[in-house]
Amino acid sequence: MGFREYRVGSILFGVALSTSMMITLYMPSLDISGVSSTATALEKQLTYGKINAFDYGDLFLHGTDKPIKVILKKNPATGAVMDEVAAYVFKPGTSFPSGLKHDNILGDDVQALSVSLGKMNKATEAKGGVFLVSTKVTNGVETPYIEFATATRGWGVDATLKAASETILAGSGKTMFIREGCWWCHTLLPEETHDWQSFGRPPMLGDFNGESPTTFGSDRKAPDLLHVGSRNSSKEWMMLHFFNPRLVQPHSIMPRYDYLWGGKDAKGNVIDLNKWDVEFNAYRDGERVYPPEVPDYADDSEIRYLIDFVLNLK
Ligand code: HEC
User: Which residue, judged by its Cα, is nearest atom 33 of ligand 1?
Assistant: First the structure.
């Protein structure tokens, strides 16, 4: 009879294992298709492009193969002045985010509008194009959708880049955020607690459709950054703080990211980090009145990507 317990045990073990396998395999797909994307989710899709932790297109996480977010104040097709909008430019060949490729993850309503009004299914990776997040109001309910502005408004890639009043490389910046491990200390997830008061509103269900990794972080050693661009929009402060956090917070535990400048400043001059250190240490020890200057960054530097990403978190 002693054998019975083993049998019961192994049956129970089998049931538990197969249930957990079913949940692991089928839960994510069930969950996502039932939830409609919010405008935030669509903006993230279009800002970050193909969202993946590791992919063969950018194995060493240099932030390549990403769309370009631009701010437009005039119509790229006609040149006429218009209300400011954010547009997302995919140069030919830039990989599409999952929302454009597998549009069922957008949720039924958003998917239907993106195809009918937005003409989203006319877009191809090979040709690229320009996208917008638009909204349709029916009976007072707003539904966001993806609009393929190249098809609906005739906005070409080059014309849109030329008409842009601001260019934001936040997609490449998210890659920097992942690569540099900012999420070891920072969260991107204010909670439903008094977090509201300091870090702003928690995310909503539907804000994450198609995003992976979400870079929530897990263990908060530093301020939540989900809305950091709303409370601190200073590029100059970010430059000082990333070059050496001790410039603005004398006891900061945050590491320095001066190497993201890439060795050259905006004018192409070599940045001498050793000289900078000597001068900074003299300042710290009270032998200098001012700390050394932080160099301006080059337009194609990794620090520019990172700062664009951080300031775009609104
Ligand atoms: C070792 C932990 C740690 C790491 C890693 C880290 N930070 Fe921080 N960060 C902090 C702390 C602590 C603060 C609070 C202010 C300070 O001490 O400088 C901070 C502050 C900030 C702020 C200002 C927040 C606010 O509320 O105004 C920003 C922006 C920021 N960090 C971005 C980053 C980014 C981007 C990375 C990755 C490149 C990063 N941090 C990596 C610990 C960290």
Answer: 182
